Amino acid sequence: MISIRGSIEHRDSFFCLSNNLQLLCEDNIYCSRRIDESMDSVMNRLRSVVQAVVNTKRAYMNPYEHFGRVNIFRAAVASYVAIYFAFRWNQRRKATALRAEKIREKKNVANDALARAHII
Questions:
Q1: How far, in Å, CA of 35 to CA of 31, rounded?
Q2: Which of 76, 53, 72 is closest to 63 using CA atoms?
Q3: Percentage, residues of the chain above pLDDT 90
């Protein structure tokens, strides 16, 4: 009798355990579905951003497009690059001239001081 009752309790606990596992599995499936849906939405957003970039690139960089958009775009980019390098070159040229001016100024100050002291 005890063994039957034990087996009944065991069976009840097994059913209870299996029901809990089933609920747990259903929750996991629901969670995984939510994760899949959120990942899909993230991928859709990313895909739309990439498509916008690609469409812009195709519109401005393809040589077979009409109205000379490519030539205008390339000329604008080349102009900006040329302006950047011109500023860099001018900056370097001015820095070199300033360094040379400082060296000349130091020599002139030293020569002036020596001349006032009647050493030269």
A1: 6
A2: 72
A3: 33
